[in-house]
Amino acid sequence: MSAQPELDALAPELRARLQQGEHERVAAELAAAGGHRTAAVVLEQIWEFVGAAAQWRAAGEPVRALEAALRSETPLAIDEAIAAFEAIDDAATLAAAAARLTRRKRHHDAARLLARASDEPAARAQAL
Questions:
Q1: Calpha distance 128→120 (Å, rounded)
Q2: Cβ within 8 Å of residue 106, ≥6 positions away
Q3: What pLDDT, in 10s, does the model give residues 18-51?
Q4: Residue 44 and residue 90: Cα distance in Å, rounded?
Q5: Closest by alpha carbon to 94, among 113, 69, 70, 118?
Q6: What global pTM score does this model have?
Q7: For residues 37 and 42, what is the distance between their CA atoms, to the nearest angstrom?
Q8: Could you give the C-alpha distances from 47 to 2, 71, 75, in angstroms and in order?
């Protein structure tokens, strides 16, 4: 069993294609069928983090999308991942994203997310 249960759950034919190096094709097929989470994992296997970030967003996993975007070091992918948090009000999700941004020395972006995580004006000001 691998460290990626999503890959273990793939049909043997798809796993065989991955072993043959058809990661991009398999990921595209999975995404087209609505398997965005598995497509993201497949793309991460080949370090295609921009595509993985898009798939994580489509899977409804914005923190994982942010992680992939940060690993890509692609400004547009990072901006898109951060922008996705504008639609999120869950304080725990915002705090998790802010922690990842802080670790990558993106303090301004982290502060913006932390400010949104609270309804208290004083806490918002403190975050900024």
A1: 13
A2: 70, 78
A3: 999 999 999 999 999 999 999 999 999 999 999 9
A4: 26
A5: 113
A6: 0.86
A7: 9
A8: 17, 9, 16
